[in-house]
Each structure stands twice: as structure tokens, then as C-alpha cells.
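Here is an idea for our session: we take a single protein and study its fold together. Once you have written the record down, we can walk along the chain together.
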Amino acid sequence: MKYRKEKDTMGTVLVPEAAYYGPQTQRAVDNFPIGTLKLSASFNRALALVKKCAAEVNEKLGLLDSKLADAIATAAQEVIDGQFDDQFVVNVFQTGSGTSTNMNMNEVIACRANEILTGKRSGKSPIHPNDHVNLGQSSNDVIPSVIHIAALVSIREGLIPSLHLLQQSLTKKSKEFAGIHKIGRTHLQDAVPMLLGQEFSGYARQVELGIKRITAAEERLCELALGGTAVGTGVNAHPEFATRVIALLSSQTDITFREAANHFEAQAAQDAAVETSGVLKTLAVSLVKIANDLRWLASGPRCGIGEISLPSLQPGSSIMPGKVNPVIPEAVIQVAAQVMGNDTTIMMAGQAGNFELNVMLPVTAYNLLQSIDLLASAADVFVKKCIDGISANAETCAGYIEKSLALATGLVPKIGYDRAAAVSKKAYETGRSIREVLLEEKILSEKEFNEWLKGQFKNGV
């Protein structure tokens, strides 16, 4: 590989000749060979958008020559469009402020902007990564802001639409199964009769509440730390810089962002990210409940519960012919486990707000955005590959009701607790059904039993 010599404040660095990044990025590459994790494209797009809006605002404020500002904005837009994805080479595990990532972006944009202006790939002239691309900014206010921007854009464009589809699919199934009688279960034991549609309505409500929780957390994500620069005081930033950049960001994303009510909180803490991650964890817990229920309800096909059937997608075993597994629910459960683990990492990172700056920003960004992306993808796959194709096995459901001793519960208002208990006990000891014992002892007629049983299915979907 051929290299070129680049200088920074610490000396000369050898940078790959074809690279758009410069010496500070190369130092980070050399200093942090820790794993292979990189910040997501959604993060880089949001960071580039901040640089683009900052250049446009600095031009209007008279702080940046229009020719330079236009070149920076053009280069930043190219980054947003994904033209330089391979140039963002800094690992997640780096300086806790994310300075290396911020400089990676500054250097790429500066180099490309200089190429636009001069035809040559130059790192510092006429556009300097710090003096021009980073004008009015610090990594300390930019990176926290980008975490919020990227998270909120990903939530609005990916996660919420996927969750709405999931809720709609579950609601549709709850209506489709509204006439399917089945036995309810508590403690993994037979309980009282219910409708399969009622069970699915509970799942739909879980997702609906998940959407509400996420939407509520958006209020805090809308606050941006921009304008605080190094420690929250706004040193070296124009008084109107933050307000104008945030207004431009809002217009570019169709999301109403606002300047942080308190810059010292916005940079020293990551409470909004911790809150959002907690909400995502709650959603993950909901998805585990739903996915596990579907696995159990579809278990079998002949020696399990088998009240529903899931779509058959692929062979389930390398050794057992004909075996088909609930692969989509299993994938969803694994996603949920990853999200829960991410939340633990974010919780610990949130505690690293030492004095005026949180110093675990990159790992917070990585895990939060991964959780959002995984949940959005999992919800989409859950709908299209599983829930939409679920069918009910009505005869199996009815058969369990007929065999269940838990029917005795509904007899209490009609024949009393002690007599109902005696009927249940006799049915258990003789291997007969509740129906058979009631008819044999002439406690109820066939017609009375059928009418009573019909009345057990209350509170329709």
C-alpha cells in the first residue's frame, strides 16, 4: 500500500494514499485496534448532516466564505448519500467522547471538499477540518447531539412503522380468531375458557403500549446539545449558531428538534439515551412473551399444544426428516436478548458522566442504534414471515375445552363451590369429562350444559 505524509499537532503520520481521512483518524486506527465494531451508517449520516447544516449556518453568520461553505455542504451531502462509507474506519472502542469519530468525519469532508475545489485530495487547504468543518462545534456537543438525531430518525423511519405493522397484524388475527373457543392457561395449567382472539388482542395491546412508550421518550431525544461546545458554556460558538443549525436540522429531517434546556445536563449525562434504551428493553420483553406464546401454542404438531399453526419456512433438522421449527419466533427472541444486553451496556455507559462530559458516548451510540435497528427488522420479519400466516386449529382448541377440568370454575355460581369441586374431583378420578359427570349425575341436562358453556365466553375481542 502506498502512503502519504500528513501532519497534525503531534507530528507526521503516514496515511494511506487513497484515503480521504487524515492523521487524526489514522492515529485512532493505530491506537484502537480493538475488535471490528464500527458506528452505523445511520450515525454517520446524522453526523454528516450536522456538518452540512453547520457550514450553511456559518456562511449565513458571515463566519465562513461561501465558496468554502458550499464545498463542505456538497462533500457532506455525498457522505449522507453513502459515497464514502468505507472511509469511516474508527472502531467503536475509542476515546469516550467520540472525538476520533468526529475528526474522522471532519477530515473526510475537508479532504473531499478540497478535492472539489482544487482537483487534488488535500487534507487541510483551503478547507481545514477543525477551523472550517468543525467551526462552532466540539465533539463534546456534536456526538451527544448525533446520538439523539440518529436514534430519533431511526425510530421514526424504521421502528415505529414496523411496530404499527406488527400491531395491525396481531389485531387482524385477534378479529379472525374471535370465534375460536379455547382453554385459557395460568401457571402453565388449564384455567377457564376464553377466545383465541382475546389472547391475540392482548399481544396487539402490548405492541400498542410499546409504541406509546417509545413515542413518549422521543420528547427527550428532541433536545440537542449543539451550542454547548467543550463543557456546555458555548465557548467559540456564535450565539445564534445552535438555534440556526437546529432549525435547519429540523427542516431537513421533518423532526422538530430543539436546543437543550440545559447544556451542562445534555453533555454530562446520557439520560435520554438510557431512558430510550429502557423503553426498547420493555418492548423486547413484550416480544419475548408474544414469540414464546406462539411457539408453545404451535408446539407439536401432534404431541404438543397445537392450537395454532405457524407458517412452515424451512427444514428444521439436519437429522430428523420432516421436522419444522418455529424459526421466526426463535429469531425474535434472540433479537430481544441482544437488546436486553445492549440496555445493560447503555445503563453502565450512562453512569460515566464524569463532571462535564459523559465518556462512553461511542458505545452508547452503537448499542442504542443497533437495538433500534434490530427491533425494527425483527418486527417486520415477525409480521411477514410468521404472524400474517398463522392459522387456528379450531378442533384442537375445542377438544381441550371439552377435556379440561378447569371448567368447574365456571360452575361455581350455578351449583356452588363444594359441588363443583366434587364434580371436578370425580372427573379426574374416573378419567371422564366435566360434561359427562354433570350429565351422569343429572346435575345439568345437555341443553343446560351447552347454554352454560356458551356463556363462559365473555368480553369478546
The chain has three domains: 3-135, 141-236+256-394, 404-454. Strands lie at 3-8, 11-16, 181-186, 189-195, 223-224, 258-259, 308-309, 353-354, 357-358, 391-392. The chain has a mean pLDDT of 96.
